[in-house]
Amino acid sequence: MMFSSSAGGKKATPQQEMVQVERSDSASPFWKAPQRDTPPLKKPARDSSLVVGAAYSHADILKFDSLNISGSGSRPRTPPSATSALERVPTQSPTTRTSKSPPFKQYMNFLSSTNDDWTADEAEDMYDYESDDGDDFGLPSLSNMKRRTRKKAEQSRAHLDDGLNGGSRERRYSNSEDIAIERPAASYPMPKKSEGKILRPQYKEILRDPANALHLINHPSIPANATPKEVDAINSRITRINKFKKLLQASTIPLPDLRSLAWSGVPEEVRAMTWQLLLSYLPTSSERRVATLERKRKEYLDGVRQAFGGGGQPAPGSSAPPRGTNRGLDEAIWHQISIDVPRTNPHIELYSYEATQRSLERILYVWAVRHPASGYVQGINDLVTPFWQVFLGTYITDPDIESGMDPGQLPKAVLDAVEADSFWCLTKLLDGIQDHYIVAQPGIQRQVSALRDLTARIDAGLAKHLEKEQVEFIQFSFRWMNCLLMREISVKNTIRMWDTYMAEEQGFSEFHLYVCAAFLVKWSDKLVKMDFQEIMMFLQSLPTGDWTEKDIELLLSEAYIWQSLFKGSSAHLKGQGGEGSRSASMNFTL
Fold it and tell me: Which residue from 233, 301, 384, 443 has the highest number of Cβ atoms inside 10 Å of its Cβ?
């Protein structure tokens, strides 16, 4: 969705745009103007040629700088931007000032008198404003990422010095095309030898046919001191696994029967193959499975070579090209991908390795150039990670692959297969919700409107309170629809939630709406006691860090209830508001 900053057609300056927004009495659903007694702070103008994200993203209005936090008793959880912090530094009047302090010293004095959360590491980070382009959906800025990677690099060097008696070792490139050469050289974690994960000896058979991993599943053992309830739970899980194995080993797999099975506690070997089948990536016939996998993986790798092989780009397996080489890439797309990938799941070690980031970059770039109607949009980088993590786990004996393993140490054939399978499954997923990412994002707008009406039916008190506080659903639920709640819950919990989405005929395009409704109503008791800024702060940082698989299953159960009551019953939602305000939602059948 494009927003014009000048009604007359003339391009206004950033300062004029700010004044116009703050003085307007527009009833825009995307903006709540703060009440200020002082003029707005001037922000540095951005280079118009710099690509920082999708031009039609609504998430810019979610920046905390936009909220009126001056009158709140509680501090924001994140420090203010460097620019606003500098402008709030108290200065002496000209008549009483005896000496002029340098800006750096003055700023450090200010930092020392405030909260530790406001501290900066070095002077170069304080003044490097151009690199501090934060993610539209709340991920760390690049300057924060640089500080974090610098600390990790220092720790890694100290570890190597201790282990190698002061010797140094040059990090080898991954055995793949290094296409992010325009980024400054990054430091990646170096796992200890004792932390390495074990590759399955049968990985070649699994590469050929995922069904070969099914006989490697180890059933959970029953402890000697287990209670009768625990014994029943373990036996139920074994029964579910055996049902999956029986269906997946059939010559022709019945997808309706596969969708009807319970997913709780299924191992990665079952999950990976089932996802590929339910997304129609794998054929249901076992006779065609091997040939199809080989053909689709080869097609993807050929696409990678075609996208990156020209214009000086090296062939797979060779060293990286010199800096400044003309690769023939779409620089606008590549620039945004190269920014977003390093801050994808930054709290998980698996996604900080070079091999992981290069793989995600190739997947996202190839998908973007193959889908010019939408191209790459921020948020798609999150959607590929559940596939990548599930498919990688099939080849590893340890079920916990989020830490202690550098994928670059695995055979190239394994990484190629994981990357190709992830690409095709991401493509299948996005084919069903591509109107979420085309210009104006009509799919997201319909779902946000439907969520507003559905909430009014499920919890009228919450809906009225949000309306009273002038909280628009687009302000917080845009990210829920764009990233499929991946910024709100962990990757492991997302994988369990996607199990159910896969089993639903329209899980990502329709059932996700009811999950979002159940998710919002879950916090109703807290939200009705909050004002506008507290609601926005709370919904941007929900307390789901300790959620387990049981919490996700409870959320899914509640979503099923709302779907059974309201799906196909759009007439029940009429009369909740003005006819004009509900016209868009009526086009979306619940």
Answer: 384
